[in-house]
């Protein structure tokens, strides 16, 4: 049987592609918390707007959202998930809840998150223009490539730049919808629209990142290179 007659699953190139895509999926889930992380960042806002819509009480809505966020964080700790994912959402919700209660304006529950989203969008775009795309800085250590993509792997640098531009533009579009509602809409309108825009933009951003990185060259494992160099140095010392 010729190599052309062999099933595709037995071709090494296909296995390398599948391994690269699996590694990319794992890295994205680790960096962004997966679908569960997206849901956990959206549900407290849903609870806030639902409770506020019914009772029109900022304190009750804020406490309900914060209590749920704490419960989700504790659940992550029990499952021994990353502390970043366990507490990131809690701090964000707590900041918004305190801000809303102190100001007496329910819309301010969402303002810290909106400012963070806008700032993140700007960071993605500015770092891409500067040649240090933010997504590469985030995912580089997870892929064990650190900054090797910037000088030694131009294909991955291009992929990180494209992905960072995608994140930046998508988050800018999200901000362009939310801030007019913050200025001229009411809290209920802002809340429901923000909930609706919680998961879809992030899913689109993660999907585009996966597409760009899956087509890029594999990462250079700088940690493995360092270990190999240490092993060679030890062998030379023994030979002497």
From TrEMBL:
> Can you tell me where the transmembrane regions are?
58-78, 85-102, 114-143, 164-185, 191-213
Q: Where is the composition biased (Basic and acidic residues)?
A: 1-20
Q: Where is this region: Disordered?
A: 1-22
Q: Keywords for this entry?
A: Membrane, Transmembrane, Transmembrane helix
- The keyword Signal appears for this protein: no
Q: Do you know which Pfam families this protein is assigned to?
A: DUF3159
InterPro entries registered for this protein in UniProt: UCP010219
Q: Hey, what's the signal peptide range on this chain?
A: none
Q: Which domain of life is it from?
A: Bacteria
Q: What is this protein called?
A: Membrane protein
Taxonomic classification: Bacteria, Bacillati, Actinomycetota, Actinomycetes, Kitasatosporales
